[in-house]
Amino acid sequence: MLELPSYHALAAMVITVLMFVGFVRGRMSIEIVSLLTIAVIAVGLYFFPLEGTRPIDGVALAFGGFGHYALITICALMVMGRGLVVTGALEPAARVLEKVFKINLQLGLLVSLLIALVLSMFVNNTPVLVLMIPIFAALASRGALPTSKTLMPLNSASLIGGLATTIGTSTNILVVSIAVDLGMREIGVFDFTPIVLLAGLVALPYMWLVMPRLLGNNRVEAEENFRRFHTRLRISGDSDLVGKNVSEILPKLPKNIQFHGHHDGALQAQDRLHLSGTHEGLEDAVRVLKGELAPNWVLDRIKRNASAKDADILVVEMTVTADSRLITRTLPSSGIADLYGVAVLGIHRPERLLGERDQYSDGGDLRMSEGDVLLVMGLESDLQGFARADSLLMLEGARELPRRSKALLSAAIMGAAVVTASTGFVPIAISALAGAILMFVTGCVKFDRVGRALSGQVIVLVAASIAIGRVIDESGAADWLGQALSLGLGYLPPALVLAAIMAFVTVLTNFASNATAATVGTPIAFSIAAQLGLPPEPLVLAVLFGCNLCYATPIAYQTNMLIMAEGNYDFVDYVRTGVPLVILMVTTLSILLALWYGL
Fold this sequence. Notes:
Blueprint: H1 7-25, H2 30-47, H3 55-63, H4 69-86, H5 91-103, H6 105-122, H7 125-141, H8 147-163, H9 170-181, H10 193-214, E1 229-235, H11 246-249, E2 258-259, E3 272-277, H12 279-289, E4 291-292, H13 296-309, E5 313-320, H14 331-334, H15 336-340, E6 343-348, E7 373-379, H16 380-389, E8 392-394, E9 399-400, H17 407-422, H18 428-441, H19 450-453, H20 456-474, H21 477-487, H22 494-511, H23 514-532, H24 536-548, H25 558-567, H26 571-596
Antiparallel strand pairs: 1-3, 1-4, 2-3, 5-7, 5-8, 5-9, 6-7
């Protein structure tokens, strides 16, 4: 006879349900719901402590998530990911994938899903996703699918890949170890891989075609609303343009780049071509054509100053005001580079001024007018001095240029962290922390910029999820749920028994933790197998699979939280896309397990 749960266990289940409802309704921010959950647990356990504990122990349990290794690991991974972004280390990989996306967006996403799935079979899926997040953020900025439509499917594919082998996730190893301790044979690395790959094949169309349609678009503004800057591209001696006609190199350029004027005959070194495009488009044109948007001596001086002062090079937009001395002047006649040590890369003429007749110098250079927006590169102090002296208004959204001199170093640090963690040489928490420290020490990430790498929303959500997981485990709520489950399975066919166990463990995983689900679920699976006269291995695999079906909430797994900030996801996004995938995987895996073991 099943006894009633203790009041601690009942309270733990009620708090979990209320937290879930708060997240789904969305009336309060995720940060507020998370902090309220932590506060309720702290106050409740202080006045009503768990059996055998002191009041202060309950407070330590509630706030222990802020110092938990999982949170430290996630923050360290975010810092390393920031290092890859600010040094431009992933630009080559992004360009390769960009070529695939240019062929077809859906083909690009399919290839990416397969890469994530296969890699996660042999490497822990956390570092795999850490590597892919900045790549897809860069792709989104280049016009591919927005991160909100790619990161969730990628995360799901990597979780399915990690499910396919015993070394795919640490939870798999934990389940197998507990099962061996209970007397079962040790499951081989690839013993259940065919089952998972078949289930993955069934789930792939959903992740590829359906899931992106269920997710919103987090792009801030459409490409057609980006400012277009007019500039002069200076052809260097080693440029691909030398000796060619403009018509020959147009197919290599981004679609938003336009040439202006007539260019007859072959181009020569030191020619200056009038072109226009978005900031990103101009950057691509410079990379492809090996030209420059400003005189070399100016750019070299900026780089030398940045190296000497250990400062970042910024690119900002500045508006010409009515009091500016630049009005009616051209860039060559303005003396900007000599006076302030900054480089103007291009000029944007707003639409409201397009009706006016543009004025040009005898050399063909545009004369600046009130309202023009200048794209300016330099050090922060020099940019501020330029803006003050020439009455310019600095706009928000300054961009740091990648510190490409440290690209190989940051890639090596990330590679070493991934290899040491995936091979089991050190735990991922240690490799991630060591990698983050090296990113700081080597200057790949600067201490004063760390806040840009971290997400406060993710931090408090992780802390709350850890507190919930611990209180569910230590209050006895997980054990009581397992006992309740075992009472009703005696009358079900084997396939439904497997499905029920998998669903139960999935619920634990999505609201407590993988470790709790594995620790509670594996002994229960053994007990049910003995009671029903079934072999324990398929039931243990049902537990293993359920521990990895953590798609339905952001608190279920650390990679779910990693993608939350970059994809700008809400709690309901995980529910909307994850629940159908959980149902699909539970159904498919249960049927395949029953068929595979002849049940």
